[in-house]
Design brief:
The protein has a domain of 134 residues: minor pseudopilin epsh fold. It has a 4-stranded antiparallel sheet, covered by helices on one side. 28% of the residues lie in helices and 21% in strands. By secondary structure, the chain is α+β, with helices and mostly antiparallel strands. A hairpin with a 2-residue loop joins β6 and β7.
């Protein structure tokens, strides 16, 4: 008898905990024969809570945004106009020999920056060379769609700054009012300093 045959003959048969019955359907891990690791599909309570929380957060952001859409467009137009007024003032202060004016066309809801010598011709933008023309609802003012404009105490619809920062006409109290539906924003320019103040409301 060879040593291997003797070893096999003398080795006891293993039994007990790891003596798993085999299934004709599986030659692998015994648990597979009984479906012990069969995966289950579905949503857990945590999944549902996370989903509900996300939906709530999105609703909290989107619903107020939709309700305040008119206000947002109005404020976008007011911020853009105020920044351009200040730009014209700064350009005039920095180069008094070539003052910059703001020319309005309220009926078309647009304005542009121009040199005082040629107020009907918009100045070119430094970054692109395009005319410095702003039309609410278009281009850089696309977020102000639907906004209309009216001006008061602005002679010739042209606002002119002095090199000191104030307005050329100290007797006027110029205002520009932007409206959309029942909401409005009014920008008032102080004649002596050129400072811009803002008031808003609804009718």
């Amino acid at each position: 008898m060879t040593p291997n045959a003797q070893r096999k003959r003398c080795s006891p048969r293993r039994s007990g905990l790891f003596d798993w019955p085999r299934s004709p359907r599986s030659e692998g891990w015994p648990g597979r024969a009984y479906g012990a690791l069969k995966p289950t599909h579905g949503f857990t309570l945590i999944d549902l809570l996370v989903t509900i929380t996300i939906v709530g957060v999105v609703a909290a952001i989107v619903v107020p945004a939709l309700m305040n859409q008119d206000r947002s467009r109005l404020m976008a137009g007011a911020v853009l106009l105020a920044s351009d007024l200040e730009l014209a003032q700064v350009m005039t202060i920095s180069n008094p020999r070539q003052p910059v004016v703001v020319r309005f066309k309220p009926a078309e809801a647009k304005y542009w920056l121009a040199y005082a010598a040629t107020p009907c011709v918009p100045i070119p933008r430094n970054e692109s060379g395009e005319p410095y023309l702003v039309i609410f609802g278009q281009g850089r003012a696309s977020t102000a769609a639907g906004v209309s404009m009216s001006v008061d105490q602005i002679a010739g619809d042209t606002l002119t700054f002095l090199p000191q920062g104030g307005l050329a006409d100290f007797t006027a109290q110029p205002t520009i009012t932007l409206t959309i539906d029942e909401r409005w924003v009014t920008l008032a320019i102080a004649p002596t300093t050129g400072t811009i103040s803002e008031t808003a409301g609804s009718s």
